[in-house]
């Protein structure tokens, strides 16, 4: 029975080969005689693949049934055709591909000037776990995501996360509307919500895993990211991209423009027109500890009274109640509190003191995870998801003033 099925499969492939070749200039005519033999057809397709490879030294994946390059999918090579690099060996690669998935991958090794070819299996981009598992079973070093030209090591950080089934995300949970731990009115316990929480969930969805949020704080953020063993895979939630952070850690591309501004009482809105107006001896400025807000205040305010308060989310109400005059905050956070409490104002919202971006933070050595995170950010920019999230959380500003494509301090 199995022999008959194999013979039928071979005849079907031969028919597909004839149809493929008839659409090209390989044959002068089709239909004359019995057509090309299987071996001749394999050689003819291998000739075309070889010719194609000479103009694609950086690598390619080719559907040899249509002689086209797929633009989506996760390509992983079969072990049986590994280390095939001669023109004769390419025939074997093509034959294997025709009896399996119909894809051939190739690339030029510039060290020895040899083209290497493999019979390739193509997985949907939603099947990352399956692709990595197949790669491991076939002794491969990596899988390749075609749509983003991203190489994912079989035994890298992404593989670790996928095998675990959960992406561990560090977040402070004190930064409305980016990352906040809501404990009130939650029948099933505390829950995180916010713009950055949705970004984290999109990254997890792309990896095909669940999310688990791990508490961190602004004073301990760097230490927690660098901890060994790791406390979490990445950190998210209003984290500004800076050169200092990039010296010791990895940061993603920016997904939200940001800048320092102030919150004050609505009755004092006309009092503050610049940073100089804030830096006065009779002005009490409140900041949360350990983050860039405190750093900014200490570096730029020499006369104002600076008070550090532990819980960032409680500072706006303290300003509204008159305990402090000004809160140093971000253009991402200020609108939320102004809309939530009419006693507050953000008079310098459209003229922030600094210009930067918010990104995802993680340990060095996780370049594969960084690549995946950047892939998600780029997709969300391209399909409009990121802009819709801005609007959902009231993070609407003049996009012409901020470039979301390049990260800067």
Quick overview:
Helix content is 35%, strand content 22%.
Give an account of the 3D structure.
With 409 residues, this protein is of the alpha+beta class. The protein contains 14 helices and 21 strands. The longest helix is centred in the N-terminal third of the chain and has 21 residues, at 2-22. It is elongated. It starts with a helix and ends in a 17-residue tail after the last helix.
Query: By helix and strand content, what is the structural category?
Result: alpha+beta
End-to-end gap: 67 Å
Mean pLDDT: 88
**Helical element count?**
14
Q: What does the largest sheet look like? A: 6 strands, antiparallel
Number of strands: 21
Strand content: 15-25%
Radius of gyration: 28 Å
Task: State the shape.
Answer: elongated
List segments where confidence is low: pLDDT < 50 over at least 5 consecutive residues. Answer: 21-33, 397-409
For the biggest β-sheet, the strand order reads: 1-3-4-2-5-6
Task: Kindly list the characteristics that best describe this protein.
409 residues; single chain; elongated; 14 helices; 35% helix; 21 strands; alpha+beta
Question: What's the arrangement of secondary structure elements?
Answer:
Blueprint: H1 2-22, H2 38-54, E1 60-63, E2 74-77, H3 87-98, E3 103-109, E4 114-123, H4 128-137, E5 142-145, E6 150-153, H5 157-164, E7 166-171, E8 174-175, E9 179-182, E10 191-193, H6 195-207, E11 210-215, H7 221-226, E12 234-235, H8 243-248, E13 249-251, E14 256-258, E15 260-265, H9 275-278, E16 284-287, H10 292-300, E17 305-308, H11 315-320, E18 326-330, H12 334-340, E19 344-345, E20 356-358, E21 361-363, H13 367-382, H14 385-392
Parallel strand pairs: 7-11, 7-12, 16-17, 16-18
Antiparallel strand pairs: 1-3, 2-4, 2-5, 3-4, 5-6, 8-9, 9-10, 13-21, 14-20, 15-18, 15-19
